[in-house]
Every structure is written in structure tokens, then in C-alpha cells.
Amino acid sequence: MTTRARLAGLEITHLDGTPQTVAAPELERFAHGLRGTLSRPGEGDYTQAVRIWNGMITRRPALVVRAADALDVLRTVEFCGENALELSVRGGGHNIAGLSLSDGGITLDLSAMRHVELDLDSGLVSVGPGCRLGHVDRATQPRALATTLGFVSETGVAGLTLGGGFGYLTRRFGWTSDDLEQVEIVLADGRLRQASRGQSADLFWAVRGGGGNFGVITEFVFRLHSIGPKVTAGAIAWPASAAREVLELYRETTVSAAPELTTALVMRNAPPAPWLPVEAHGSPVIMLIACHSGPLARAELDLAPIRAHGRPVADSIQVKDYLALQSMFDATQPAGLHYYWKSEFLSSLDDDLLDACQAQFDGNSSPANQIVLFHLAGELNTHRPDDGAIGNRDASYACIIQASWPALDPAGGDCRAWARRAWMAIRPHSTGGNYVNFQTDDETDERTRASYGDNYPRLQALKSKYDPSNLFRVNRNIPPSP
Question: Are 221 and 125 in contact (CB under 8 A)?
């Protein structure tokens, strides 16, 4: 607990957006019994807690609560609810919109809650809300087990899962939220509840894609699958002059690919990666990233047509540890850069879509801007459209427009403008859905509504049931039904 000397009165943002003074005795009552810490600007671990992945976001909460356990979470939610104070929740701190922070409000920092516990008899893993993907993979891979997570090891498990989540195993097992078996959650009224398909099923449905709108998760329980420890994975790069042929190769490959094979196509200027020749660095390339999680002999056969295509600049596909694959692209998304992304889900890759991708790629001079096509089709499409709030069961691909630049780079505005232009060119080919985890800070409410489609009214009704005052609003917010 913080020392008594720190607990003077404090001005904190009210739910109505106005500043409200919270007196020292009220703060003292709140702090009493906390196992974690409190800090305000200039104190303790405040600076660390407000330093998040996207360097574009510079918000300053009035108070940061670094929770040690579920009881600290419960106490913080109760305090904010009773006093109608704005609350944000920080897990891994990787959200592109910076929704883990609130200017002038209270940030509940869960980053210390990083337990990972395997239950081999049931084939489940329990995960704390402060865990990042790497924490889970490092705990499960020694047993050749994995759950469906993303593809950058520093991503937070909580944010990934609550927004649906996808990665290299999605074609085999569905969205990340499809692997979710149970959650422990603190509700707006201060109750701690278990939710699963058999218990509080409506709440469990909502958290499987509905974001942080319904409470604070204090534990996730995921289903595990036999994966690794070795997979066949890596990337192949061709010069930009081969873009059209590679785009068509990608389309042909994905139409008939085995579920064990996941591929992503990336169009960008070559990064200074060690697997690429120095003479290629900075030049436009088109890359195909592959992960084959099936038997190694089968992987060799399935990947042969891709590896035989044309004259690649470099080919790094090999048998490697699944753990190595999961962190292979960490260096392309370092903390502190400015990031601006757009996304759309696609049902197919028709000629017009491929033309649009190539046109936006041509002339892109930024070192890090990229267009990504990620193959999703498979298990997720076999579920009912309303199985989990994430929906988007008609998605076969995700198209992601990614711009990034250093904080002081004067070209940052051009990068952002390029991302918006490229997105507008791709958008006519969308299913109508988009990935809520990739929504930026300037997205409209209509974009959030579109990300859920027909599931949105049900989410609003459940918001009215579980959070009628909209305490959990610092997110891609789903307000209660009118």
C-alpha cells in the first residue's frame, strides 16, 4: 500500500467528464487493505504504468492502482462505482488506441497479475490478466501444448482475447475467444463471478469478443492443443516486380490450403532483417509468411509450391521452435513507435481487391508502412454467426493497413494519410466487419457497431444488464440500450 503521506485529496475525472475532488479520507479508506500500490504523477511506478506500446498515446491518469490480486481489482471497481469515477483497465498495454489509460481518471493496472497454471488432466491453462503472449507460450510449449494466440509475443492476452483474437492457429481452432473455456470477472456492482458456457452463459458470450465492456477479467481459462515444439515456419520475399504473380500465388494457395497451413502476405519495403540480404534492405518486396503446424513431412509437401515459385530474394522457411515463430516479428513492432492501423475482414480475394492492394503498395516510400493479408478461413467459419460476441464468422481473410513511424519523424502525417487512403481503397471489398482490436483512437461509434454486426443489439442489452451506468466505458464502448 502507498504511504499515508501521499494520500492528499485528489482531483479525478467523474463519469460525466468533469473533475471531481476526492478527499483524503476517502482515498485513505480505499487504500487501506490494498495489497498492491497506488501512485500518481511523479510517484512510484506511475511512469512505467502509463508508458504503453503505442507512442502516439500520451494520457495521464490521476491515479494508478497496480493490483496484486482479484481482491484489489474488486476494491478498485467498487471505489470507482461508488464515486462515479472514470476507470480504465491496463493489461498488456498493447492496444493501438491506448484504451488502457484515461486522462484524469483511475487506471487499474493488472500487469503484476501474471500467473500461468497448466492443468494437464483437463487440457486447460489458467492465465492472469497481466500476461503477455510470451508468458503463456513459454509455460505451455515445454509440454508441446498451445492455445490460439496472436503473433507478437509482447501482446497482452487480455486485450487480444476480449477483442476476439487471431493468430497462426486460427485456421485450425478458430478465434482466440473460441478457445476460452471460463473467466473470473469483477462486475460493475463489485461482484466476483465465474462465467462459462454452463454458468452465466450470457455474460460469457459477451466477453468472447465484446471487449472490456462488461467487467474486469481476473483470470482466463483456455483450452490447449497439441502443437510443437517444432513447426515449419518462416518467410519468403520476392522483389516488388513480382507482386502480381505472388498475389495470385497467395490466392491459389489459400483456396486449397490444409488447415495446418496459415499464410500471411505482406507488402512493404524490406526491413533490415538478418534473413534478408543487405542489398535488399529498404527496397520494396512482397513477402509470404507461413506457419505449418502439422507433421514436418506434410509441411514440406504443402509448402513446396510456394518455395518453388519464381526467384525469391530470400527464403527463411525452416523447421523451428514454435516459440521462436511466436516472437519472430517482435522487432517489427517495438514499443514506443507511433502506430496507426486500419482493418477490414474479407470473404475472398477477387481481382479488384488484388488490384487495389497492389496500387496502394506501389510508390509507398515509408520504411515500415505495410499492407497485410492474413488467411483466417477454417474452423471459425464452422460456428454459428452468433457464437460469441466477436461474430464475423463469414471472414476468410483479414486485411490490415499498418503505418508506423518514430515519434519525431516529420513524415508521420504522410504515413497516417497513406494508411487512410489505402484503407478507403480496400474498404469496398469488406464483408462489412472489421477487427475491433485494431481500431484506432479516432474511430467512430459506427465502426465499433460494424465490427459486431448483428450481434450489437444483444451486446447493448447485456450492457444494460451488467453495467447499466456504463462504468466500463474507456474501451471501444458499447453503451447500454437506449
Answer: yes
